[in-house]
Amino acid sequence: xxxxxxxxxxxxxxxxxxxxxxxxxxxxxxxxxxxxxxxxxxxxxxxxxxxxxxxxxxxxxxxxxxxxxxxxxxx
Amino acid sequence: xxxxxxxxxxxxxxxxxxxxxxxxxxxxxxxxxxxxxxxxxxxxxxxxxxxxxxxxxxxxxxxxxxxxxxxxxxxxxxxxxxxxxxxxxxxxxxxxxxxxxxxxxxxxxxxxxxxxxxxxxxxxxxxxxx
Lengths: 75, 130
Fold this sequence. Notes:
Strand content of chain A: 25-35%
CATH topology of chain A: GMP Synthetase, Chain A, domain 3
Radius of gyration of chain B: 20 Å
Shape of chain B: globular
Oligomer: heterodimer
Structural class of chain A: alpha+beta
Strand order of the largest sheet of chain B: 2-1-3-4
Number of strands of chain A: 3
Structural class of chain B: alpha+beta
């Protein structure tokens, strides 16, 4: 079961320069909320920014990670 | 074996045929997931009609939808054939007023077309003055 800490590390490893905060919303290891700040988001639409975050987890989103709510900022 | 894929074709057709279409869990009257419920709430608050497709009856709907949209989660809102986003993006857009703008910028197909702004008159007209 993924943990918020593990998701945070993977986002930060997967997106260059990213700083992430991840919350486990229900404490059940399947609904998370991530706030991600990354210079890599600059010039990208919100849709593309969220896709970059989803792409870190591939098919796990919708699987073991049932829900991943995302907020993105460039700084 | 990807030559004939009736489910994917039906989804693409639904996206093409509806200006505003939401793929969700459950129905607008009875959403089966909090994220779908929030997204329906934002659309209803803006007051623009939308088509809704429940992805729950057949897991292949979700699978094929995500293959088309390259977006892993449900709900998914499409406006004029383009993916706008899921619950987070639609909620943010609702709060910032962008959602109303996105839904309202173009008149519906049966509304009279807005006349383009009058082009500046050709130089010759000015010369006729005086």
